[in-house]
Each structure stands twice: as structure tokens, then as C-alpha cells.
Amino acid sequence: MKSRIHPLYLFIFLTIPFVAWGKLQIWPTFDDWTTLSAPNFDTDWGRYIFSNGSFWRPFDALFGFFYAHQNPQLFPTVNHICILFGHLVNTYLVYQLCRELAFNRQSRAIATTFFYLSPCVWATVWACDSLNQTYSQLWGLWAVLVYLKMKSPLKYFLWFIFVFTAALAKENGLAWAIVPPILAFGFRRISRRTLRNHLLYGFSIALCYAVIRLSIPHYGPLNPDYQTFLLSRKVKEIAMLFINTCMTADLISLIHAPNRNLWIGGATLLLSLPFFYMVFIRQARLYATRPMLALLLSAFIVVFPNLLLSLSMMNAYAPLGMAALIVGYLINDNRHTRWITIAFSLYLLSALFIGAHTWYHSWKSGRLGQQLATEIIQKTRKPVEKAYFLIVEDDYPKLSSFCVIPSDALGWGWAVAHQNNYRWPETIKDTTIARTTDAAAIGRLTRKAFSQGYDCVWKIDHTHISVTLNHQR
After folding, report:
1. In terms of Cα–Cα distance, which of 120, 30, 112, 124 is closest to 79?
2. CB atoms inside a 10 Å sphere around CB 467
3. How far, CA to CA in Å, does 218 sit from each of 168, 169, 222, 411?
4. H/E element, 64
5. Rounded-to-integer distance, Cα 25 and Cα 359, Å
6. Do 351 and 119 touch, CB atoms closer than 8 A?
7. Are 77 and 23 contacting, i.e. CB atoms less than 8 angstroms apart?
8. Backbone angles phi, psi at 230, to 5 degrees
9. What radius of gyration do the chain's Cα atoms show?
10. For the purposes of burial, counting CB atoms within 10 Å of the CB of 285, is it exposed (0-12), middle (13-18) or buried (19 or more)?
11. pLDDT tens, position by position, 56-89
12. How far apart are CA 325 and CA 346, in angstroms?
């Protein structure tokens, strides 16, 4: 007799419509407006298809050109649909990997749901520019699944293609070139000799990518943030990654000063502690086992590029697939099924609240950008070709893409162009000025902008908008 579908899978299916509805309500903020996957009207397509600055992400660039040549108003809706679809496929791939690794019914269901709803996903799922993050994981997990399941030589070709595609989605996708054989060896699916040979093959995939990337044209300077390494910053980033991955804590309530509520933040953390204890503490004896060491090493390899460069809240998504398998493996050997169920129910309750709270602030930040863009359009009163944007320095705290300052919600003025279907303005230049800048200095900047052919000067001071028109044009 076939077993009934696990209730956690029903939970996933039932929440998908709500997640989809919520995602479609979120408006771009900050660098969502200038990401490669935002509408891009530049005719020099090579600058974006080839290596640009620190990135080579041609799939993102194709989305940008698609919007520009079809309908810019499809942004960010199409991004949202593709990101959510990719996350759901990733959730299914985690489930399939759990089956392939012979995890039991409960551990498969919890690992799959853990991946689907972990606090680590919200900076990716609620974002507008996370196509690269989502699909780098998708092709990577698929490469692992193909490697484990297939016996024919075709798997080597597919492994190459999937890893290369993961790297073209986002550079850290190249890490999946060596993860599959490490996992297979850890779970005793291949011998030590095969591991050595397949690691050499994986490194050859990475070398092939490097040769091609160095051979193609390169445009733009490298990101200076990727050339600095601050130990204190990395410790903070790793701590946030650990908290978000192994337990639940509403970081908006804990660390964002304007929304700080230690009662709520503490409650979300406390709700996850029983699950943390049952999985990561009670099962600590499994840490020295071969499968666990392989899983831990794989998780480290996948997140390592971000540890070197930048480990934002969105980057916490990168090792989440491996983290879900770690959870599944630890639960698979746990016989206290009833207590695990209770502990994970509390974890889910906390994760749901964090997801809803994060969504609210993401939605509020995007809505503020819409409102300010509408106000600028109303005060400008007529279409303009060139706009100069003065941004008064704002010390309002911000957190990821959830809680942003008003000028960031406007995306340096590009939210205004989007409201006008990118018909106007065609050119926007921005300058950030100190809060202490006096009216005389602002007047000089305005006159200078007018002398350079700008049709108007927009100024934002927190949420206060002022517009000065060039009446000589």
C-alpha cells in the first residue's frame, strides 16, 4: 500500500499561490533599477553580453534587452515569475537529491521544506534582481543530481554543460564543478581513484571557463568592493549566514534600528532553538562521519567565492541546497520523530513570520519609490529629456533590499523613467550632497546643471521632493 503524501508537501503546494501573489506586489529598489536584468536600451550589446566589470552574466543581459525591445513595463513581473519558478525547481531538486541519497520519508520532507522556506531564501525570493542567484543554484543542483543518477557517459557532457551554465548565471556557479564527486565519495558512491579522476575533470571545466572568459572582450572597471577584505566585516557576515541557515531570527526586528523590536526578534529566535538542538546539537556525533564531512565541505565550496568577495543576505541562498541536505542527513538518523515534528513546526511558524515581515518591508520600500516617482512626475509637469538628480545625504539606516532609504527606493531617479515607460527622461545624472550643503551651493549646482543642458533639477531630502525647471529650454 502506497504511503500518503507527507503533510509538509501539501503545505508547500498550498503556500505557493500566496508567495506568488506577494512576490508580484514587490517593486524594484536601489540597484534593482540598474541591474543587468532591468530594461537596457544601450545599443552596444557587447558591453553586457561579454564580461562587464566583475561580472559575466549574459542571461541577465538578455533579460534587459528583452524588456527594452518588447515592453519595459513587463519589468519586474517577468523577473518575479522566473525567480519564483526557479526557486520551486530548486526545491524539487533538493527533494530528488534527498531521494537519491536514500533519506527517509520524514527527513526528505523536512529538508525540502527547510530549503523552500528558510529565512535564507527571502533576500532572493522577494528580490527583483536575483535571477542569477536562483539559476546558478538550479543548474548546480541539477549537475549534482545528474552526476549521482546517470551511469552512461552522457553524464560527463551534461555535467560540463550544467556547471558552465551555472557559472554564466553567476560566477560562484563554477563551484559546482567539484561538488558532485565529493558528495558521491562521501556517500560511498565512487572510489577514491574515481574521486581523483573526476576532480581533475571538474577542475578542467573551471579551467575551460577561465580560458574563455579571459579570451572574450572585457568592459568596465572591476567592482572595488570585491578588492577589499575586512576581517571584522567577514566575521559579521559569517555570523549572519550561520543564524539565517541554522535557525530563524527576524533580523529586521533585531538589527534595523527604526524597526527594532527585541521581543519579536527574540521570539523568532527562541522558536527555532528546539529544532536547532534536535538537529545540530543532539546529532553532533554524526559530524565526523564521511557523508557529513562531504556535505560540510560541499557547502563550504559553494559559499567560498562569496566569502572571498561579498557575502550579502542574498548570497546566503548559495549554500542553502547543501544546508538542506545536511539537515536531511542529520534527521535521517534521528529516531525521535515526534519531537522532530514538533520542533520543526515551531521553526516553520517562525520562518513564516519572518517571510511575511520581510515581504511587508520589501513591499513598503518599493511602494515608497513608486510614490516618490509619481510626485516627481507631477512636479515636473512636462516630459524632459535630461534630468539632474541631487540627493541629500541620508543617514537613515538600511538593511539589504528590505529597508532602504527613500533615494535608494527611487534608484537614482530611474523609477521615474519606468513610470513613464522609459519615454522620459532619456538621461539622468545624480550627485549626492552633504546635508550641511547650504542653499547658495545648491543654487550653484542647479545653474551648472542648466548650463550643461539639463532640463530640470530634482532634489530629494529624505522624502521631501523639490523640482526646479530650466525655463530657458
Report:
1. 124
2. 17
3. 15, 17, 10, 26
4. helix 58-69
5. 9
6. yes
7. no
8. -110, 120
9. 24
10. exposed
11. 899 999 999 999 999 999 999 999 999 999 999 9
12. 20
Q: State the DSSP code for 33.
A: G
**For the whole model, what pTM was predicted?**
0.94
Beta bridge partners of 390: 431, 459
Q: Compute the CA torsion angle 296, 299, 301, 306 (nearest 10 deg).
A: -140
- Which residue has cell 523613467? 417
d(CA 102, CA 155): 21
Establish whether the linkage from the previous residue to 17 is cis, with ω within 30° of 0: no
Pairing status of strand 51-52 against strand 218-219: parallel
- Torsion of Cα atoms, 217 then 309 then 307 then 203, to 10°: 20
Cell of 272: 527555532
Q: Which amino acid is at 259?
A: N
Cis omega (within 30 of 0) on the bond before 7?
Answer: no
- What is the distance between the alpha carbons of residues 378 and 348, in angstroms, rounded to a whole number? 45
Work out the number of other CB atoms within 10 angstroms of the CB of residue 90. 25
Q: Are 91 and 114 contacting, i.e. CB atoms less than 8 angstroms apart?
A: no
CA–chain centroid gap for 429, Å, is 27
Question: What cell was used for 188?
Answer: 560511498
What gap in Å lies between CA 392 and CA 395, rounded to an integer?
A: 10
Residue 369 CA to residue 228 CA, distance in Å, equals: 31
- Taking the C-alpha atoms of residue 202 and residue 180, their distance in angstroms, rounded to an integer, is 9
Cα separation, 116 vs 355, in Å, equals: 11
E strand map for 89-185: none
| 3-state SS, residue 389 | strand
**In this predicted model, what pLDDT tens digit does every residue of 22-50 receive, in sequence order?**
999 999 998 899 899 999 998 888 888 98
| Residue 29 near residue 411, CB atoms below 8 Å | yes
